[in-house]
Q: What sequence folds into this?
């Protein structure tokens, strides 16, 4: 009987350790993978993506593209709205990895001796586990305040009351990818390698919490909205209402039988728990630095449909919950779309355990650029199972429209899934074929292997994985020009695996459970090329390593990584890639579990918390060979970790430290407490710091000689005003060494004045109010750039900015005889010359007037709702131009000109001709005959359609159906061809 108890306890506890399990839609799984993946080949995959559209707006670009994610087939997860294995981030989103046991699974147990079975947490444990705090922080004894270093090095004396494993919030929006967490005191820490992002407005910590056992108050923006500022002056708003959130409605069922010792008989039991919690926040609004606004609308939904589901959230040995999950009809009436996933489902002769997740989807309806006559509309359809799919994207701009159609087809027989079989973008057709889609299992199938992928049967285990390892994966793409790419997979193998934190070097041959790319065949319409991929170390063994123990249901493509990959294009040559992995970049020696009271028998594990993972998957070396196996080029890469030895870690609590490093601040401390003895505690240092390229060495092998070039990059290490951008770049070639140093606002305002900052207009670097404004707004542009060339000659460039939009105002350059160096750069402005001045802005930060170093001004007039210049006039100021035209001279008065009005109405060839006529009248104004003028017309989402030079010669730009420039002709679409462009498709 004791054996029965242990089996049940162990199985239930395993549920709680699978933190990134199948508890979310396919799109959310893809976002996490995309935000944490450094290189496709490191995963044994190749990138397959198709761009859909791009719209420049301010200093951002609104774009959509779809990508194929070649993970194995998980039968118990609904396909994405784009079709199985396809995903896209249509606007932006944040999704989190939750680490709280909302469903109380770890409190489920059977005790035959007492006759107690079910889910029985203490009142304190239940309150803690069923409270979801968006901003998490460590629980301490009352009145005790410990620093992070004190927690790390001596948890027994730091007042810790409970475990601390914070949620990770993964994000992907407008080119920013990464994650953020909240440290032990609720301070946000952001991991992003290409920007310094700020999570804004933490507010009251208590107001960020809610109960997962009651309907959530979605109007409370303290829990429903997240704001992020980038370092260009833009603010992004995520969530904020029920429609822009994805909510998990989860159900845990625990049942079985055991032999009751007291009654000497078999006893059956059944228990269950429920919860609802926010899984994802979707981008709803962007406020750009230039005043532009982009807004998204999500389909409105009625959250009341789930109130009955939460009527009772815990039962033990009863008949079950009094209410069930809403029916399809009830969901339809509430306009709610859901996707289903099974986090774990298993059974034995003695028990049955299952967790089901129903995710209320956030379905984007449209995106609008306010005041620009530009909108993107998304159209959907539902299948017979009430699952939603994207049907088309319709772009509307200046009265024109563009349609992108997604043709999804049900494949797989009775248990069909929807597959994207073709995509049509402006008459350009892409078609897709897939592996083994004839007969698929039901969405309730148990037929998965240890990685959670379909094994070709309906029973758990390896099954027929050797045959079905690549089932449903993308096989072929046919491009609009009838070229194609064929993908062939193979079964993965590894030579290393991780078990209980140790590396086992036992060779594991291919077992058929996971697919990786073996080769691809590309046909460009003329020639066919075959590329083969191999995954071998120098000794011939597999370069694969399994990073985690087998845990069914996890994001399986994250399990196997490859440190060496060879890419061989037949008859063309090959490239060898070497990536960092768990061998080259283990969890750092001082980042380890600290076990206190080691005589205790209890085991405290941080399984799954790999603190060096962000360093892995980086390219360490690349070697290029020709078809004769001759080495042509070798590139070596090194990275900056910013970490320091543990004995040098500085305690920042109450310490105004001028020498502290970013590693002293940007970390949190994972803590765990032995539930059987609260004095047995462990901690783990978890940095949140990018791993940035610091050295690149390139060796070219030419005619028996080696030609070497080396670039070394230095970054800021101080925690004060830290950012991920270079402070110095040193380049060494055969000609010598050159150095560029970048000075940012924080270095120029050392006193950190908040207001009334002094201005010194007589020196370089004297704009203190501007520097403080940039710091306050999280704007990180280099203000001064100092260069030393190979001859040890120094030069300087100063960038001045406008106060509100932070766009460049003027560029100054040092004179040839200026005396300066890397430390003495605040030279007199008399030793500089103005390179380019941006004299005047309109209300959207468009440059209306610039002046070059010769003092010649150029005026630009913007049309198409202030998106594109339609006139450039040289040798005149804006005020002079407006006075000649008899118009007022404010920066927005040009908007009343006829040429601007006509451009705003340009929606077809007829209205474009009206604009051309108006531009010709403007050009022929006799008062402007002495000023060289260039005029432009556009198709705003495609490009320029005509340029009329000062000579009067007009160039007409002609595009193909894929919006690619095809021809430039003289004067008209049938005129003389000036230039012609040809394209071939290649992945």
A:
């Amino acid at each position: 009987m004791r054996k029965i108890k242990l089996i049940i306890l162990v199985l239930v506890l395993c549920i709680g350790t699978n933190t990134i399990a199948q508890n979310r839609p396919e799109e959310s799984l893809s976002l996490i993978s995309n935000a944490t993946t450094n290189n496709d080949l490191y995963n044994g995959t190749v990138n397959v993506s198709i761009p859909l559209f791009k719209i420049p707006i301010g200093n951002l670009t609104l774009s959509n593209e779809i990508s194929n994610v070649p993970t194995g087939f998980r039968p118990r997860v609904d396909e994405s709205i784009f079709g199985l294995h396809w995903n896209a981030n249509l606007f932006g989103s944040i999704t989190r990895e939750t680490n709280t046991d909302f469903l109380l699974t770890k409190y489920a147990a059977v005790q035959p001796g007492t006759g107690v079975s079910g889910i029985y947490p203490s009142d304190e444990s239940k309150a803690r586990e069923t409270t979801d705090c968006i901003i998490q922080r460590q629980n301490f004894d009352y009145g005790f305040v410990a620093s992070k270093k004190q927690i790390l090095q001596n948890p027994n004396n730091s007042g810790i009351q409970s475990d601390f494993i914070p949620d990770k919030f993964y994000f992907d929006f407008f080119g920013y990818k990464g994650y953020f967490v909240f440290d032990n005191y609720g301070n946000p820490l952001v991991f992003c390698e290409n920007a310094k992002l700020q999570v804004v407005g933490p507010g009251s910590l208590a107001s960020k919490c809610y109960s997962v056992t009651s309907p959530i108050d979605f109007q409370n923006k303290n829990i429903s909205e997240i704001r992020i500022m980038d370092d260009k002056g833009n603010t992004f708003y995520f969530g904020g209402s029920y429609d822009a959130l994805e909510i998990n409605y989860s159900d845990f069922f625990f049942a079985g039988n055991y032999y009751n010792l007291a009654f000497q008989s078999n006893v059956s039991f059944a228990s269950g728990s429920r919860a609802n919690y926010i899984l994802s926040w979707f981008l709803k609004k962007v406020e750009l630095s230039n005043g532009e606004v982009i807004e998204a609308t999500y389909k409105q939904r009625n959250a009341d449909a789930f109130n009955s589901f939460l009527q009772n959230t815990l039962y033990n040995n009863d008949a079950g919950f009094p209410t069930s999950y809403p029916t399809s009809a009830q969901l339809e009436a509430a306009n709610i779309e859901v996707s289903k996933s099974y986090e774990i489902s298993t059974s034995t002769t003695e028990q049955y355990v299952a967790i089901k997740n129903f995710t209320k989807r956030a379905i984007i309806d449209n995106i609008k650029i306010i005041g620009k006559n530009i909108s993107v509309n998304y159209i959907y359809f539902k299948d017979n199972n009430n699952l939603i799919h994207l049907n088309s994207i319709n772009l509307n701009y200046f009265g024109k429209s563009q349609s992108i159609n997604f043709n999804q087809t049900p494949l797989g027989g009775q248990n069909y899934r929807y597959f994207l079989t073709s995509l049509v973008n402006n008459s350009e057709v892409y078609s897709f074929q897939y592996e083994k889609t004839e007969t698929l299992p039901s969405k309730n199938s148990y037929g998965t292997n240890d990685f959670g992928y379909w094994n070709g049967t309906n029973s758990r285990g390896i099954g027929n994985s050797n045959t079905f390892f690549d089932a449903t994966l993308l096989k072929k793409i046919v491009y609009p020009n009838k070229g194609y790419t064929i993908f062939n997979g193979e079964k993965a193998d590894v030579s290393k695996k991780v078990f209980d934190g140790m590396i086992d070097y036992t060779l594991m041959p291919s077992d058929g459970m996971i697919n990786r790319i073996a080769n691809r065949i590309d046909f460009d319409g003329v020639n066919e090329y075959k590329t083969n991929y191999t995954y071998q170390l120098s000794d011939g063994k597999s370069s694969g390593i399994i990073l985690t123990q087998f845990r069914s249901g996890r994001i399986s493509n994250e399990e196997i990584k490859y440190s060496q990959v060879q890419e061989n294009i037949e008859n063309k040559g090959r490239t060898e890639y070497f990536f960092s992995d768990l061998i080259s970049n283990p969890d750092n020696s001082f980042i380890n579990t600290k076990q206190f009271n080691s005589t205790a028998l209890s085991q405290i594990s941080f399984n799954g918390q790999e603190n060096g993972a962000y360093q892995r998957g980086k390219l360490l070396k690349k070697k290029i060979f020709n078809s004769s196996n001759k080495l042509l080029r070798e590139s070596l890469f090194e990275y900056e970790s910013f970490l320091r030895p543990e004995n040098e870690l500085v305690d920042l609590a109450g310490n105004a430290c001028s020498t502290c490093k970013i590693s002293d601040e940007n970390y949190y401390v994972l803590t765990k407490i032995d539930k059987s003895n609260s004095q047995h505690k462990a901690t783990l240092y978890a940095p949140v710091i990018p791993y940035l390229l610091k050295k690149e060495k390139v060796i070219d092998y030419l005619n028996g000689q080696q030609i070497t070039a080396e670039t070394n990059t230095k970054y800021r290490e101080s925690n004060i005003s830290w950012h991920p951008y270079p402070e110095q770049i040193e380049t060494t070639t055969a000609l010598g060494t050159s150095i560029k140093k970048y000075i940012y606002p924080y270095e120029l305002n050392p006193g950190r004045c908040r207001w009334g900052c002094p201005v010194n207009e007589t020196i370089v670097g004297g704009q203190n109010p501007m520097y403080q404004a940039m710091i306050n707004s999280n704007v990180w542009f280099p203000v001064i750039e100092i260069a030393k060339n190979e001859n040890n000659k120094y030069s300087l460039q100063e960038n001045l900015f406008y106060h509100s939009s932070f766009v460049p105002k003027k560029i100054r350059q040092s004179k040839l005889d200026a005396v300066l160096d890397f430390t003495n750069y605040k030279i007199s402005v008399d030793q500089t010359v103005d390179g380019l001045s941006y004299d005047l802005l309109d209300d959207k930060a468009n440059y209306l007037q610039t002046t070059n170093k010769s003092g010649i001004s150029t005026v630009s007039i913007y049309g198409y709702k202030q998106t594109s210049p339609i006139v450039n006039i040289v040798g005149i100021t804006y005020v002079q131009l407006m006075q000649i035209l008899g118009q007022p001279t404010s920066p927005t008065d040009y908007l009343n000109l006829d040429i601007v009005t006509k451009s705003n109405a340009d929606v077809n060839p007829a209205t474009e001709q009206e604009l051309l006529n108006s531009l010709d009248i403007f050009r022929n104004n006799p008062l402007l005959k002495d000023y060289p003028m260039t005029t432009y017309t556009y198709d705003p989402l495609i490009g320029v359609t005509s340029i009329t030079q000062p000579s009067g010669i007009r160039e007409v730009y002609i595009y193909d159906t894929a919006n690619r420039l095809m021809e430039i002709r003289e004067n008209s679409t049938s005129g003389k061809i000036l230039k012609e462009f040809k394209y071939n498709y290649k992945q």
Summary: Residues 1-136+167-378 form one domain. The radius of gyration is 31 Å. The chain has a mean pLDDT of 87. The longest strand covers residues 265-287.
